[in-house]
Each structure stands twice: as C-alpha cells, then as structure tokens.
C-alpha cells in the first residue's frame, strides 16, 4: 500500500502463478502458522533440499532464570542455498524462468 492508502494489485496472471495467489491464501497460511507452528514450519522445511537433516527441529528458552533467552531452529541442518535457488529449479524444468528477483 502506498503512503496515500492506494493499493496496487498484480495482474491476474501474476497472482495465479505466485506462491501466495490471494489475500485469502495469505490469511489461511498465517492462521495455519499460528494454530500449529511446528507443522507449518515442518511443511516449509520439506520444500527445500537439505545436505544434512536437523538434529533438533526447534528449541527455545524465554525464562531468564533458566539461562539466556534463546531460540534455535533446525539445529544441525545444513543446506546449499545456490542449489535450492538455481540447480533444483533447473532440475524441476524451470531453467528458462527467472530464479530470483
């Protein structure tokens, strides 16, 4: 949205081919992420190639009396971002498309 409150919508063809094609789809994803965050983020995790899997999906401590505040995700996991952005998409038949804007 612009500073004047105007909304600029992408074309229908751009929306229909996108990962989140509508505000309704966005709202559903957001609701799913709040209702069951572990399932939501495991589903996201599965969309990527991983060189090594995680040993601990997530851990956290918000209680300072138990130690430093910390949040850890996918501890032990390693990936190759170049493979995920380029090589994997070429193998999936998307080599003629823009990989990253």
UniProtKB/TrEMBL annotation:
Signal peptide: none annotated. GO terms for biological process: acetyl-CoA biosynthetic process. Residues 1-21 are annotated as: Disordered. GO terms for molecular function: acetate-CoA ligase activity. Pfam families: ACAS_N. InterPro entries: ACAS_N (IPR032387), ANL_N_sf (IPR042099). It comes from the Eukaryota. Residues 26-84 form the Acetyl-coenzyme A synthetase N-terminal domain. This is Acetyl-coenzyme A synthetase N-terminal domain-containing protein. It comes from Nesidiocoris tenuis.
